[in-house]
# Entry
Amino acid sequence: MNLQKEIEAELKSRGADFVYFADISALPVQQNKNFPAAILIAKILSKEYLAEITSHPNYVQEKIKTKIVQTDEFEHSEKFTDALADFTAGFIAKKGFAAYSQSENNIANSGFYDFENKRTPLPHKTIALLAGLGWIGKHNLLVTREFGSALSMCTVLTDAPLKTAAYRLTKSKCGNCRVCIDVCTCAAILGKNWEPGLQREEIINVTRCTTCLRCLVFCPWTQKYMVRKSENIT
Ligand code: B12
# Structure
């Protein structure tokens, strides 16, 4: 079995919902750290979880008040996909290739997290776009046709010999929709349709964001996934 298939099989057997391989060689070295390829690992959020937040829009505040944030599915999924990224970097290193896990801990511990401006050099979303997964919504989150924004993801940069593609960026499909703008209680979302080159600050004022998950959950593409009859994830 070739290394790419081995990595995908290992990750799927450990619970990843999907694994993508992207060509990041065209990005500036500040972003790709001279690595030509990236692996994107994603976990889809459950419909039950989305339904709970849809019926309890103050879900996060209630979790914080009752000090049970650690039971939050997204919180769990983020730690889960980060752990899979750290595992994958170790797995690839044992095969004799270089790899850099973009887990929150590894980015912070290797000094690449800008705490003041809440940013990293190469966001998972940028890699997701290059892997052809979807577009950036007005809420500045990745939107996929199949699952909306209902996913947690992490990435690994590597020089392992992987077959990768750099997809043409998908144009925003938000159009005149303003659900995320209206559901955001702190007016953080500024209402612009994303296009390449647009700066984050022209889309969202992250200093206002209370991480309440509403923009992710109430996005009509996420809601469409939430109400869709279940089928096997390919
Ligand atoms: C810092 C951070 C935050 C900060 C700042 C948010 C932000 N947008 O930067 C805060 C704390 C506010 C935050 C909040 C939330 N976050 Co957050 N966050 C991150 C983190 C750790 C880094 C993101 C980063 O580096 N941003 C820097 C800016 C500059 O990059 P950017 O936002 O992607 O935007 C620009 C560029 O990327 C560029 N761009 C985008 N794609 C492309 C493609 C190409 C080719 C090019 C050239 C450029 C380009 O355009 C964008 C706008 O200019 C990522 C994990 C990661 N390592 O990526 C999670 C992450 C983005 N967060 C996530 C989530 C779910 C949330 C919340 C919903 C959580 C909650 N509890 O409510 C909220 C939603 C806020 C929002 N609507 O953005 C998920 C997103 C999943 C998805 N479907 O997209 C991620 C990926 C974490 C994960 N494990 O899945 N977050």
About this structure: The CA atoms of residues 54 and 217 lie 7 Å apart.
